[in-house]
Design brief:
Elements: H1 12-16, H2 23-35, H3 40-50, H4 60-67, H5 71-83, E1 87-90, E2 93-96, H6 98-101, H7 111-128, E3 131-138, E4 141-148, E5 163-165, H8 170-176, H9 181-188, H10 203-215, E6 220-223, E7 230-239, E8 242-252, H11 257-275, E9 285-286, E10 292-293, H12 306-312
Antiparallel strand pairs: 1-2, 3-4, 3-8, 4-5, 6-7, 7-8, 9-10
Helix pairs in contact: 3-4, 3-5, 4-5, 7-11
């Protein structure tokens, strides 16, 4: 008589497995089949969950590793998600697309800004190793749209969707510098708070700093003004109507920000040109109702020589930016 199979051996996999396969091989295959998401929807969800934030950038290999899906399967699903705008495919990898960032692509009107700045932020972060930010001015605060950080990301207390006071961040000051003084006063109110010993605490002093930023062709710095031990350099993305966003690099307070400052200004200028082709920042522009506003402006937007950089980045004897 043929020996009866045990219940463990009598699985569908065991009954159809080649004779060369051991029982351990059969059970491993069976377990893998049970653990693999059975439906396309579950696999798509698994891939979308691998992107742990709006600024996440993953390669195909990253996705396959995080989801434990076969590379060919991950690639096929990624292509479908890109076609349906759940993901976007850039030269530096995959990122969340318009549908994932907001229902129907509605993301508060910031989608075009994020799209224009994304490759520039990526290049800044890879080139410098510092934390790259993109933010907009929202009242008296900056609102972070993007953050790319690498290994330093956790050391900088900012997050996508988070806010920070505009008067003590380089991003905020870079954007405030291109507003009229009356607008700055209206946004900030009668007083501003100190967060560290280095925070500017008086509006008069802040206006002096904003004037210095304009003299530096838009370069804004802060060292320990918002958080002790953190330094930042920023420049505004500008259109004919004024500042629309800001780009920054942040890191340890000892970081040589003067070395990377030209890169930040160049990135902000390129983003401005992408968003407003043919429009010169700081020029007069019409407003609804026939009104015009006088935009703050400075001299020619030219490349900086080392001598120019030295003059722009001149500091006092204490080595402070104030």
């Amino acid at each position: 008589m043929t020996e009866a199979m045990t219940p463990e051996a009598a699985t569908p996999e065991a009954m159809t497995a080649p004779e060369s396969m051991t029982r351990r091989d059969v059970m491993t295959t069976a377990n893998a089949r049970r653990e693999s998401p059975p439906s396309m929807i579950e696999r798509m969800t698994l891939i979308l969950d691998a992107f742990n934030g709006p600024t996440a950038r993953l390669t195909l290999e990253d996705v396959a590793r995080r989801t434990q899906l076969p590379r060919s399967t991950a690639h096929r699903i990624l292509d479908q998600l890109v076609k349906q705008r759940w993901l976007a495919h850039h030269s530096f990898g995959y990122g969340l697309g318009q549908r994932a960032l907001g229902l129907g692509g509605q993301d508060g009107g910031h989608g075009k800004i994020r799209e224009a700045a994304a490759p520039l932020l990526h290049e800044l972060q890879v080139t410098t190793g510092l934390v790259a930010h993109l933010a907009v001015l929202d009242g008296a605060e900056v609102f972070y749209l993007d953050k790319l950080g690498g290994r330093l990301a956790t050391s900088v207390p900012s997050r996508v969707g988070g806010r920070a006071p505009a008067h003590c961040t380089a991003l905020g000051k870079a954007m405030l510098a291109w507003l009229e003084p009356e607008q700055v006063d209206a946004l900030l109110g009668s007083g501003i708070s100190r967060f560290t010993s280095r925070t500017i605490g008086e509006l008069g002093t802040l206006h002096q700093e904003l004037h210095r930023i304009r003299q530096r062709r838009g370069l804004a710095f802060e060292r320990g003004e918002s958080y002790p031990g953190i330094a930042c350099v920023a420049a505004a993305i500008r259109g004919a109507e004024g500042p629309v966003a800001g780009i920054s690099l942040a890191g340890d307070i000892r970081a040589p920000l003067e070395n990377v400052a030209p890169l930040v200004v160049t990135a902000a200028r390129e983003a401005s040109q992408i968003l407003f082709p043919g429009s010169a920042p700081g020029t007069r522009a019409g407003r609804p109702g026939g009104r015009t506003r006088r935009a703050v402006r400075t001299g020619e937007e030219t490349s900086w020589s080392p001598e120019t950089m030295n003059r722009l980045l001149a500091v006092d004897g204490r080595g402070d930016w104030m």
